Each structure stands twice: as structure tokens, then as C-alpha cells.
Amino acid sequence: MESITNKPIYIQVEPKNINFVNRIMEGYEYLGVVSTLDHTEGILVIRATPDTAVEAREILDHLPIDIKYIER
Q1: Which residues of 16-50 are buried (b: 16+ CB within 10 A; e: fewer)?
Q2: CATH number of domain containing 35
Q3: How far apart are CA 4 and CA 2, in angstroms?
Q4: CA distances to 9, 14, 39, 44, 63 from 50, in Å
Q5: Each residue of 57-69: pLDDT tens digit?
Q6: How far is CA 53 from its chain centroid?
Q7: Residue 55: which domain range?
Q8: What pLDDT, on a 0 to 100 scale, did the predictor assign at position 4?
Q9: The model's pTM
Q10: What is the number of domains present in the chain?
């Protein structure tokens, strides 16, 4: 079974918040690389390393926007 720290992080946000999430990850020196999978639905993937995945999730959990974790 694959560890949560080895899996990409899939999230859904309001489309207007896509750039916000990307800028936050950039500001944290790319703890994870953000790619938009569906801009109309606000679906993003964040690829983090095993060393940064937990911290990336902690940052996402504390953002002042609604974030829904999704499975892909």
C-alpha cells in the first residue's frame, strides 16, 4: 500500500481560488508543485515529496478558503 506521503494531493477549491493556492505553494518554496486538472471545477493536484507532503497538507488545512480533499 502506498503511503499518504508518496501520493499526490488532490483537492477541489472554488475556481476563483486556484491562483491563491498556487501562490501560497510558491511562497512556501514549492513544498508542492500545483497543477490544475480542471479549471471549471477547481480540481488541483499538488505533487509533494515524502519530506514535504505532511507540511503541504498542514498549510492547506489552515488556508482561509474551503478545500475539499478528493480521491483520484
Answers
A1: ebbeebbebbeeeeebbebebeeeeebbbbbebee
A2: 3.30.70
A3: 7
A4: 12, 27, 26, 19, 21
A5: 999 999 999 999 9
A6: 9
A7: 4-69
A8: 64
A9: 0.89
A10: 1
